[in-house]
Amino acid sequence: MTELNLTHKMDAVQVEDGEKSSSEPQVQAPAGAGSEEETHSFAKNMLPYSGYVNHVSFWNTIFRPFVMLGSPAVLWATLLFTTCISWLVGISITLSQIFSAPPYNFSVSAVGLTNLSSFVASLLGTLIAGPLIDGVVRRMSLKNGGTFGMFHLPFITHFSLTKSL
Length: 165
Prior knowledge:
By secondary structure, this protein is mainly α. It has helices at residues 9-23, 42-45, 58-68, 72-100, 108-113, 116-143, 153-162. The two termini are 38 Å apart. Mean pLDDT is 77; it is low at 12-22.
């Protein structure tokens, strides 16, 4: 089987930076210099709350997730995830109202078991689809000369068109 070397434009920059920095002399600071945090024992680190040192401002921490939504990939993933969760909640609420009323008169546990098939299908789909898509993307990368492209876009498009079914 042909070996696949995945390349990305950012890898080339990192390699170039790595080559430049390897020719420069490396100077390391002493072990204790510059470290402001004190070391703790393992038992103290395992406490439910042993303190948290964060030098980022509170407002930066609050607004950072909203800044991340400026990335198209994060925005798209958020849109897909919230749509799927909304459908899941809507279907679950609707099923409980339909199956608990006449003519079905299901008990609470029987209504809950109606969601079991969705769980099993999701589990099987996740176990099968992940390796299947990885294999298809690997094959497409080999046909593209070993360069990883945007081969996952057809799968994302198919998912976004059929997610509400």
